[in-house]
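Fresh eyes needed here. Have a critical look at this protein's tokenised backbone.
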Amino acid sequence: MSGNTSVLVRVWRPLEIGLAVLFHPADGFRELRGYRSFTAAFILLLLTFAVRVASILMTSFHVASLQPEDANMMLEIARIILPLLSWAVSCYLITSIMDGETFFGNVLLAVAYSMIPYIVFTLPIAALTLVLTRDEMYLYIVLQWIVWLWVGGLLVINLGVMNDYSLKKTIGVTLLSLFTLIIFWATIGLIFALTNHVVMFVKDVYNEVLYLQFN
């Protein structure tokens, strides 16, 4: 009996925190400070990806930005996971030098829980496109914006609550984290562009040498 109770507690606890994050985010993230579960983070990230795939399949072709036959699953994984992971890394780097109180695992878990509005509401919104007329599709766009603003708000709130920051410091750390994120991806893009140019240069030189050698 005690074993069953323990299992129920392990299952209910993440759900309880998720509901709190959804409706009482400050209390939810406060609870999350003492909760460490990489399993919960993994499941939430997996659900985020699954919801993304399902929404591609479900959304009416009138408003879909990506048709199912054009979808690349590996690319969709990257679009979901890489921004979240890089945001978690950026936040951890900044909070670690700004008197933060969280480890990287805490940050990643908080980021994963911040995706709950997307997980819960994306599919109902996608289903709504199947009954809306073309003239009513603006409602779909508005609802999508609301969900993403909700997620963005949770990302800011968790940064403040998890590290016990004041409102002013939370805003400052959020902006620094965003700047770090931009610099990170700009650097990655620059490295990729330079590497591509070097590869093309070496390839051109190689082709030129072959041409001169055999002509």
The longest helix spans residues 167-214. The mean pLDDT is 85. Residues 3-214 form one domain. The helical segments are 2-23, 25-32, 38-58, 73-96, 104-114, 116-128, 138-163, 167-214.
